[in-house]
Write a structure and sequence with these properties.
The complex is a heterodimer of chains A (326) and B (368).
Chain A (H helix, E strand, L loop, with lengths): L1 E3 L1 H15 L3 E5 L15 H5 L4 E3 L4 H13 L3 E5 L10 H8 L2 H4 L9 E6 L14 H5 L5 E3 L4 H13 L4 E6 L8 E3 L12 E4 L4 E5 L4 H15 L3 E5 L2 E3 L3 H11 L2 E8 L4 H13 L8 E5 L10 H4 L3 H13 L1
Parallel strand pairs in A: 2-3, 2-4, 4-5, 5-7, 6-7, 10-11, 10-13, 13-14
Antiparallel strand pairs in A: 1-8, 6-12, 9-11
Helix pairs in contact in A: 1-7, 3-4, 8-12, 9-10
Chain B lengths: L12 E3 L18 H26 L13 H8 L7 E3 L5 H7 L3 H8 L24 H14 L6 E6 L6 H12 L4 E7 L2 E2 L2 E2 L12 H5 L3 E5 L3 H16 L5 E6 L18 H8 L3 H12 L4 H28 L16 H23 L1
Parallel strand pairs in B: 1-7, 2-3, 3-4, 4-8, 7-8
Antiparallel strand pairs in B: 5-6
Helix pairs in contact in B: 1-2, 1-3, 1-10, 1-11, 2-3, 2-8, 4-11, 5-6
Classes of the chains: A alpha/beta (326), B alpha/beta (368).
């Protein structure tokens, strides 16, 4: 075990999978010599060479489209899109091809690719560098959308994503890249895609979140315990799609109260789907309406105002109290 | 018979008028008035000094990330200088000197790069688009503007800027192709500054020039010394006249160099040598142009110093005005402005919710 940041943990996962499996290749802008603008691929070109760490021409659609071809021919491409705000160039290749090639070929072809991209706000970035649009991918049949919440889950899920037989969108909260260090095992560790986990146990309320929101949610749960004597259970989704409804239904059936927290805009966001699943599967256990704490239905404002956009502990605690008194 | 040569357009010119050693080609020297020459120099210097000040502000934590333009003043100012106020200017994001020339205030640029949406507001009179950060995406907008300008029977033209990296994007191909097919009044200006963050132009294209790509679309292309403001200006005048007179689009490749980092978040020492940067520093467009103006007798040494002083005063005043303005822009509710012409009900509700939250937070502060 060693303590590392999420950047180092993803780097470890890539390094180990590249060493284990020569089908794994990386492609993206500035991922070679520069090590990626966030340094996630730092040093990998030195170990594995430019044939396996491709500094591509500046063309996101080409990165995704080429990865489709590589994957069809049995490679395991891992794409880096520098910021998720530039991944929309890839949309056509992912929606029209990566997501449906298995289906279109009646199972003969498949696209085991991973598309990594930093997402989310909180780092005083320029326009197009702070959005949370995971719902686009989650809405696309044929894709899996994974969002780790820290170094350990990022490492384990990255290994699983690379080994997954289908295309995986892997969103990395850039606010978490260097936010904290965590023990990450040196030996291989995987986590099943499509499985959420309870990161804090509680009997009074279920809080469902993922990615960068897990930390403020845990802080809010602690505040609720300290000031209200309320024990909130916190579920870290880890995979947005396919959604693990088993665990959240079990939890809400016990607590009778639920809330969903995400940075993405509210309308048609992941929270809407989660609430619908809870209504379908746990309606008779609910004692209060399910609360949502989300970004507004806005483009995240330029950074001087982003703190007012991103859900914070205060907003989460207030919503929890409304849910609890209902 | 089965294999024979096909006649294709492949004539490509390279243009240099004032080289880095101060040699001037008098036959090609553009006829600019003394006022025009001084305006051009002042605009380049303002771009340079403002850029340097922005870097200081960023390093002091007074603004956020921004992309310096240092070294590219000639390639953008030479290109934009022949534009008329009624023409369209479509920037990428490293055309700050040209943006200022077109009328954007220094204050708005400071606001923008310190994370205030208010900094994106341009004067109503400016027929310019805001900067485009997603690389290459603006090329198509320029083509659409060009189509609309012709549809409206105007004599306006459109000038669009992009970098060497953008030529790898599909949007570049699509834009140039459309413009050529419809023979639209668009001037495509590629600021080839050699580096797209860490990737050199040799990894963007296998062709020896970017200008030659014009030929595949059936439009003229020209390669100019992008650090020679006279050459860029001459090429831009020619392309603008062609566009305005119905002769269709042109691709201009300005060969220049990004002397600084991609943005202030970038460390160029990771991917390029000091020797390379030093080489390009010798080709700096500003001293070259200043020496030309002095030799020509357009400006004297004291006049150059005077321009420098005025430019520094303008920048200082803008920084002070911007910092004062930012103190006043403390209302978070402004984030709800301008998303739709008419705010939908759910957004009104969200805005009210934030207003209540702010009022409650204000009350708590008062109670304490």
């Amino acid at each position: 075990m060693s303590k590392m940041t999420m950047v180092q943990a993803i780097n470890l996962a890539l390094r180990q999978e590249m060493a284990n499996d020569d089908r794994v290749v990386l492609l993206g802008e500035d991922i070679g010599r520069d090590g990626g603008v966030f340094r996630v691929t730092e040093g990998l070109i030195d170990t594995f060479g430019p044939e396996r760490v491709l500094d591509t021409p500046l063309a996101e659609s080409a990165i995704a489209g080429m990865a489709v071809g590589m994957a069809i021919y049995g490679l395991r491409p891992v794409c880096e899109i520098q910021f998720s705000g530039f991944a929309y160039h890839c949309f056509h290749q992912l929606e029209s091809h990566a997501a449906r090639l298995r289906w279109r070929s009646q199972g003969r072809l498949s696209v085991p690719m991973v598309l990594r991209a930093p997402y989310g706000g909180g780092v005083r970035a320029l326009e197009h560098h702070s959005e949370s649009r995971e719902a686009y991918w989650a809405h696309t049949p044929g894709l899996k959308t994974v969002i780790p919440s820290g170094p350990r889950t990022a490492r384990a899920l990255m290994v699983s994503a690379i080994r997954d037989p289908d295309p995986v969108i892997f969103y990395e909260a850039k606010g978490l890249y260097r936010a904290f260090r965590e023990e990450v095992p040196d030996d291989e560790e995987t986590m099943p895609i499509g499985q959420s986990q309870i990161v804090r146990e509680g009997r009074d309320l279920t809080m469902i979140a993922y990615g960068a929101m897990i930390r403020p949610v845990l802080d809010a749960a602690e505040e609720l315990r300290a000031t209200d004597g309320v024990e909130a259970e916190v579920i870290d989704l880890l995979t947005i799609s396919p959604l693990d409804e088993t665990l959240m239904l079990q939890s809400v059936t016990r607590t009778g109260r639920a809330m969903v927290i995400h940075e993405a805009p509210r309308s048609f966001g992941p929270g809407a789907e989660i609430v619908a699943r809870l209504m379908e599967g746990a309606f008779y256990s609910l004692e209060a309406p399910i609360a949502r704490v989300t970004g507004y239905d806005l483009i995240i404002p330029y950074f001087s105002r982003e703190k007012w956009y991103i859900p914070n502990v205060r907003r989460i605690v207030d919503a929890a109290r409304r849910t609890l008194t209902n | 018979m089965p294999r024979s040569d096909v006649a294709v357009t492949d004539r490509l010119e390279s243009l240099s008028i004032l080289d880095e050693y101060g040699n001037l080609d008098r036959e090609l020297e553009p006829q600019l008035s003394e006022t025009q020459l001084r305006d051009l120099y002042r605009a380049m210097l303002l771009g340079r000094r403002f850029d340097e000040r922005m870097l200081d502000l960023q390093r002091q934590g007074r603004i956020g990330t921004f992309p310096p333009i240092k070294g590219q003043e000639a390639s953008q100012m030479g290109a934009v200088f022949p534009l008329r106020p009624g023409d369209w200017f479509v920037p990428a994001f490293r055309e700050t000197a040209a943006e200022i020339w077109r009328g954007r205030t220094l204050e708005s640029i400071i606001l923008y790069f310190n994370g205030f949406n208010e900094g994106a507001l341009l004067p109503d009179t400016q027929k310019d688009l805001p900067i485009a950060i997603p690389v290459g995406s603006q090329v198509l907008h320029a083509v659409g503007l060009g189509w609309a300008a012709r549809y409206r029977r105007t004599d306006e033209i459109v000038m669009v800027f992009f970098g060497d990296g953008a030529t790898s994007q599909g949007d570049f191909h699509e834009g140039l192709n459309f413009a050529a097919v419809y023979q639209l009044p668009v001037v495509f200006v590629c600021q080839n500054n050699q580096w797209a963050i860490s990737v050199p132009v040799s990894r963007q294209t296998h062709t020896p020039t970017l200008a030659q790509k014009a030929h595949a679309y059936g439009m003229p292309g020209i390669r100019v010394d992008g650090n020679d403001v006279l050459a860029v200006y001459a090429a831009a005048v020619e392309a603008a006249e062609r566009a305005r007179s119905g002769g269709g689009p042109t691709l201009i490749e300005c060969v220049t160099y990004r002397l600084m980092m991609h943005t202030t978040a970038d460390d160029p020492k990771r991917y390029r040598s000091d020797e390379e940067v030093a080489l390009w520093q010798q080709r700096d467009p500003l001293p070259r142009f200043a020496a030309y103006l002095q030799q020509k007798g357009t400006v004297t040494e004291p006049q150059l110093a005077e321009i420098e002083t005025r430019v520094m005063e303008e920048i200082q005043a803008a920084v002070e005005a911007a910092e004062k303005r930012m103190q006043e822009l403390d209302d978070p509710l402004a984030m709800f402005d301008h998303l739709y012409a008419e705010m939908p009900p759910q957004l009104l509700a969200q805005k009210s919710a934030l207003a209540r939250e702010l009022a409650d937070a204000g009350k708590e502060v008062d109670d304490e």
